[in-house]
Write a structure and sequence with these properties.
Elements: H1 3-18, H2 25-41, H3 43-54, H4 58-84, E1 87-89, E2 96-103, E3 106-110, H5 118-130, E4 133-137, H6 143-156, E5 162-164, H7 169-177, E6 182-186, H8 189-200, E7 206-209, E8 214-218, H9 224-236, E9 246-252, H10 256-271, H11 287-295, E10 301-304, E11 308-309, E12 314-315, E13 318-321, E14 338-344, H12 347-355, E15 362-366, H13 370-379, E16 384-387, E17 408-409, H14 415-420, E18 422-429, H15 447-456
Parallel strand pairs: 3-4, 3-6, 4-5, 6-7, 8-9, 8-15, 9-14, 13-14, 15-16
Antiparallel strand pairs: 1-2, 2-18, 7-17, 10-13, 11-12
Helix pairs in contact: 2-4, 2-5, 3-4, 3-6, 4-5, 9-10
Length: 457
């Protein structure tokens, strides 16, 4: 799409927002119901497009994209009137103080390719709920999903309200030069920095949902079989192309071999002797990412897997031992089916390693010992944590999802999505029945009595 056309859509949306139509609560609810109907009526087409782009099993596509979006829309519809109601708070005698949520205006949502449907439309749920207009930029990498999204949104919503802009780097760059009231971006930390820098030129607030190297710590006092199943499931869901995927494992030296053996059993159980022929095993999204991941296989000792097929964008589930922190695989988020394993004798070694590196988007601890996980939670920082599970904390509308430090800025999901796209406007209402003469010059009270009076306000 040419830049002039993009500018026209942004201006049209700005005028539409200024009309005040999107501020009406019933309008917002009706638009959310329309979005839900869009998903319901086109579910099979959506699942097919996602599976084409990512080589996913249709159930994975439902669990990863469509199901969570439906849940999010329904939850928002149910709670929106309560969230949008102005709230009275404590105020001075004879006055009223109110907090009133209002929409930010015109927002830009930029989605990644790994969950191309959910991560474009779930932020949109929050934007609609808060009363905003939105420009949607899907990833050009997942072309089937992007094309379908454009078709469905264009045939369902007026472009002066919600508009999909397809394209690549040039279109995104031009969008970032425009004035928006909020930018919501999901993607890599490196691109997040570019988004943040571009937004700063217009002082545009941002939500950056990034990533990082999410660690797992396994205590000797754990259920090894269940621990292995939950880590391998979290690691290999969507072929490891999940921002909260377990990136590497620290395991107590005393149970390391037992855990690795269970990892191997899980891979066999989930995907068979040859995962390449399993319909349940996804593919790497494109050749560029395949080459990046294959290059990471040349350091350490592969103790399971390691087979690749570039023509099929296939990389076998791979467990790697003898890893050094200075290896390339530990310098970047893996975002693929490779799992480095470290051992520790004292858990403080794992804690110190995590704390000496960038704060992760997620962290996972497996133990039957409450004091053990409380110690890890207390000493480490992450966007979110799961104890005795992986990824599942992301599925709750009651928990804010987002990063900390280089893993992200801002939170969303449930009411936190509404908050992200709202301005909480403070309103102070005074009376004319009496006035505060003691506050006006020339001052009639000494400092001592002025302090006392002010303390009562």
């Amino acid at each position: 799409m040419d830049n002039l056309k993009i500018s026209e859509y942004i201006e049209i949306q700005r005028n539409y927002f200024n009309s005040g139509k999107t501020k009406d609560i019933n309008f917002r609810i009706s638009q959310l119901k329309t979005l839900l109907k869009l998903v319901d009526e086109n579910e099979s087409r959506i699942l097919e497009a996602i599976s084409k782009d990512l080589g996913r099993h249709i159930i994975d596509s439902y669990m990863g994209d469509v199901g969570p979006l439906k849940k999010s829309i329904n939850y928002t519809i149910k709670n929106l009137k309560k969230w949008a109601t102005p709230k009275k708070v404590h105020s001075m005698t004879g006055t009223k103080s109110i907090i009133q949520p209002e929409p930010l205006g015109n927002v830009l949502i930029i989605a990644p390719w790994n969950y191309p449907f959910l991560l474009l439309l779930d932020p949109l749920v929050g934007a609609i709920a808060a009363g905003n207009c939105a420009i949607l930029k899907p990833s050009e990498i997942t072309v089937n999903t992007a094309t379908l999204l454009n078709e469905l949104i264009s045939s369902t919503f007026e472009p002066d309200y919600i508009k999909v802009i397809e394209g690549g780097v040039e279109e995104t760059k031009y969008l970032l030069e425009q004035k928006f009231d909020h930018i919501f971006f999901t993607g890599s930390t490196s691109v997040g920095k570019i988004i943040y820098q571009a937004a700063s030129k217009n002082l545009t607030p941002v939500t950056l949902e990034l990533g990082g190297k999410s660690p797992c710590i396994i205590d000797e006092n754990t259920d090894v079989k269940i621990t292995a199943r939950r880590i391998i499931w979290g690691k290999l869901f969507n072929n490891g192309q999940t921002c909260t995927s377990p990136d590497y494992v620290f395991v107590d030296k005393k149970i390391k071999e037992k855990v690795i053996n269970e990892f191997k059993k899980c891979i066999l159980e989930f995907y068979g002797e040859n995962p390449q022929v399993s319909p349940h095993y996804s593919r790497i999204v494109n050749a560029k990412n395949f080459d990046r991941l294959e290059a990471l296989l040349h350091e350490g000792r592969i103790i399971h897997g390691g087979k690749t097929d570039r023509n099929d964008l296939y990389i076998e589930p791979t467990i790697i031992d003898n890893i050094s922190p200075d290896f390339k695989i530990m310098q970047e988020e893996i975002f693929g089916p490779l799992l480095p394993v470290f051992e520790y004798e004292n858990v403080q070694e794992a804690i110190d390693y995590i704390n000496n590196n960038q704060k992760p988007l997620a962290a996972y601890v497996f133990t039957k010992n409450k004091k053990f996980y409380e110690n890890v939670v207390k000493q480490t920082s992450a966007g979110g944590m799961s104890i005795n599970d992986t990824i599942m904390h992301v599925t709750s509308e009651h928990l804010p999802f987002g990063g900390v430090g280089e893993s992200g800025i801002g939170k969303y999901h449930g009411k936190y999505s509404f908050d992200t796209f709202s301005n909480y406007k403070s309103i102070f209402i005074n009376t004319f029945l009496f006035d505060r003469d003691i506050l006006y010059p020339p001052y009639k009270l000494c400092l001592k009595w002025t302090k006392r009076v002010l303390s009562l306000l």
